[in-house]
Amino acid sequence: AKPKNPEDDWKIWLVVNPATWLMPIFYALLVLAIAVHAVVFSVGLGWQ
Q1: Taking the domains of the chain in order of start, what are their residue ranges?
Q2: What is the DSSP string of the chain?
Q3: Does the predicted model carry a pTM greater than 0.70?
Q4: Which of 3, 15, 18, 44 could form a disulfide with 22 if both were Cys (CB 3.0 to 4.6 A apart)?
Q5: Is residue 30's pLDDT more than 80?
């Protein structure tokens, strides 16, 4: 049966488990944030 969007959007989480991708995305965001901070501080735009 063809899904009726957006009423059936919640069903994707039955197939795609957040336990498999949520923490890797958070870790990637953490690495990105640290990299951005490192660049900003190395340029000299950090705290005085």
Answers
A1: 9-43
A2: ----TTTTGGGHHHHS-HHHHHHHHHHHHHHHHHHHHHHHHHHT-S--
A3: no
A4: 18
A5: yes
